[in-house]
């Protein structure tokens, strides 16, 4: 377990020997509201606020130290300021709580995570990136690997320049594998995350029109995702989606061994004979070399076949047996993104409000089409599509017209979905474009019937989980 002495050594290069410096650290946090005894608070500056304003709050909740890069007002709580910038003398003992002065909090957090990860040379890291399916792949991959190894995984959406270091700082000597989701908003970010985590296995899910507002073109998205395979060592494994024309060529960009998965028999690991069993999961055949396995997994939607193939490929790369891999694929806890909850009037809600892109929304609509009952699609804005914004929303509107009996949209971009559905032949009295979540809830309460299947999906910024909550209370 990391101690405060480790923290100070990792930041300054010098190690204090006595007193509070030997205190074990529970975890690092970037939100003072999450602080608990033995935590270290990173006082990061954000777009809306500055963590330095909440150092006292973190200490009041039990944090033993805070990373700071400017003076802070502590008030009634006394705290020593220890300068841990490289080259500064470190006192032999550190009274608690302590403010650890660094040059830049974010850079210090990343540097410390890199130093701490290097303390575990035997650890093998699996990095996962792609436009859609990163989190579900991370969860299922961790479930598979945990059948043989002690696994650390990134929680929730801790996949960026802050979240990944926070995860790595939880490493302990019992961990044998780490499964880390890697997100990005700009070129170079995945390369930077790889420089910290040093993955041996890299998984690319797909490349789609996500983050185009920042990157400009889908080709730029592909180049940025490829930073993961470019960072892999020669004895590593690049697990690539053979079915994605932008992912397949990444085999030529890596020193690692390429391992392809997909629905094409040309892939190393491939699937066919796919059958959806609705809310009971999916069945398919999986082929590897001269072996064929009949698989049933409790994941929802045909797109989950690719998720299963990715997790299986990682298991094979890490030397696991088929029994271990297949047992891991059965872990229902890996189905985090789409949750089935009871709705009003005996209906069922498919809560897929975590995030949305055209590809993931069409996949969710495809699942809705496979289920029994009258179908209602509640779809909101899909953000960060850049120049693909109108095209992406119109594609979703066209598919919604085929699947849904009732279509409800939220937001200005969601209105494009509604417009395309009407234009393509969906009767106007079955389409409702709403401005807000509240308006959508009030309308839905008037149209939901017993046995309805209701899909709720949109980008995270719309907080469409509020619709699920309101309908569940109804």
- The amount of beta strand, in percent, is 15-25%
Question: How is the main sheet built?
Answer: 9 strands, mixed
Q: Helix segment count?
A: 16
What would you report as the Rg, rounded to the nearest angstrom?
A: 24 Å
How many domains make up the 3D coordinates?
3
Task: Just give the CATH class of the largest domain.
Answer: Alpha Beta
Strand order of the largest sheet: 7-8-6-9-10-11-12-13-14
Q: Total strand count, please?
A: 20
CATH superfamily of the largest domain: Mur-like, catalytic domain
- CATH fold descriptor of the largest domain: UDP-N-acetylmuramoyl-L-alanine:D-glutamate ligase
Helix content: 25-40%
- Tertiary shape: globular
> Which spans of ≥5 residues are poorly predicted at pLDDT below 50?
none
State mean pLDDT (0 to 100 scale).
91
**End-to-end gap:** 47 Å
Features:
474 residues, alpha/beta, Udp-n-acetylmuramoylalanyl-d-glutamate--2,6- Diaminopimelate Ligase, Chain: A, domain 1, UDP-N-acetylmuramoyl-L-alanine:D-glutamate ligase, Protein-Tyrosine Phosphatase, Chain A, 3 domains, 9-stranded mixed β-sheet, 6-stranded mixed β-sheet
Q: Can you describe this structure?
A:
The structure is a single chain. This protein is of the alpha/beta class and 474 residues long. It has 3 domains: 4-104, 3-Layer(aba) Sandwich (Udp-n-acetylmuramoylalanyl-d-glutamate--2,6- Diaminopimelate Ligase, Chain: A, domain 1), CATH 3.40.1390.10; 120-334, Mur-like, catalytic domain (UDP-N-acetylmuramoyl-L-alanine:D-glutamate ligase); 339-473, Protein-Tyrosine Phosphatase, Chain A. Helices cover 32% and strands 20% of the residues. The protein has 16 helices and 20 strands. The strands form 3 sheets. The protein has a 9-stranded mixed beta sheet. Strands 15-16-20-17-18-19 form a 6-stranded mixed beta sheet, sandwiched between helices. A hairpin with a 2-residue loop joins β13 and β14. The radius of gyration is 24 Å and the shape is globular. The model has no long low-confidence stretch (mean pLDDT 91).
């Amino acid at each position: 377990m990391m101690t405060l002495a480790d923290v100070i050594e990792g930041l300054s290069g010098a190690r204090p020997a006595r007193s509070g410096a030997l205190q074990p650290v529970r975890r690092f946090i970037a939100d003072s509201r999450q602080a608990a005894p033995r935590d270290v608070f990173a006082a990061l500056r954000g777009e809306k606020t500055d963590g330095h304003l909440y150092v006292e709050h973190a200490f009041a909740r039990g944090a033993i130290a805070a990373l700071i890069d400017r003076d802070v007002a502590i008030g009634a709580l006394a705290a020593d300021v220890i300068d841990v910038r490289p080259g500064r003398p470190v006192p032999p003992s550190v009274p608690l709580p302590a403010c650890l002065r660094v040059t830049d909090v974010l850079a210090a957090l990343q540097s410390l995570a890199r130093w701490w990860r290097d303390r575990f040379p035997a650890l093998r890291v699996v990095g996962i990136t792609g436009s859609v399916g990163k989190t579900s792949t991370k969860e299922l991959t961790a479930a598979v690997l945990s059948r043989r190894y002690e696994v650390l995984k990134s929680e929730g959406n801790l996949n960026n320049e802050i979240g990944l270091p926070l995860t790595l700082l939880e490493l302990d000597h019992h961990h044998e594998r780490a499964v880390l989701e890697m997100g990005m908003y700009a070129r170079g970010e995945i390369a930077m995350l790889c420089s910290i985590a040093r993955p041996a296995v890299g998984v690319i899910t797909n490349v789609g029109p996500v983050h185009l507002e920042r990157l400009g073109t889908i080709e730029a998205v592909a180049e940025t995702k490829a930073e993961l395979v470019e960072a892999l060592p020669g004895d590593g494994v690049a697990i690539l989606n053979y079915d994605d024309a932008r992912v397949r060529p990444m085999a030529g960009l890596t020193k690692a061994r390429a391992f392809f998965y997909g629905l094409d028999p040309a892939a190393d690991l491939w699937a066919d004979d796919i059958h959806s069993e609705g809310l009971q999961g999916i069945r398919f055949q999986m082929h590897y070399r001269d072996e064929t396995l009949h698989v049933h997994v409790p994941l929802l939607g045909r797109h989950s076949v690719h998720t299963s193939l990715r997790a299986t490929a990682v298991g094979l790369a890490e030397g696991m047996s088929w029994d271990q891999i297949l047992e891991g694929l059965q872990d229902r806890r890996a189905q985090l993104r789409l949750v089935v909850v009871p709705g009003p009037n005996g209906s069922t809600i498919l809560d897929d409000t975590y995030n949305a892109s055209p590809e993931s929304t069409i996949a969710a609509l495809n699942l809705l089409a496979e289920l029994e009952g009258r179908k209602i699609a509640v779809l909101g804005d899909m953000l960060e599509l850049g120049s693909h914004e109108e095209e992406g929303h119109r594609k979703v509107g066209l598919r919604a017209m085929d699947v849904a009996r009732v279509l409800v949209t939220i937001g200005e971009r969601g209105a494009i979905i509604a417009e395309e559905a009407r234009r393509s032949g969906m009767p106007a009295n079955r389409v409702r474009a709403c401005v807000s979540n509240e308006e959508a809830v009030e309308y839905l309460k008037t149209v939901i019937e017993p046995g309805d299947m209701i899909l709720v999906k949109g980008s995270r910024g719309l907080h469409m989980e509020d619709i699920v909550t309101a309908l569940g209370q109804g």
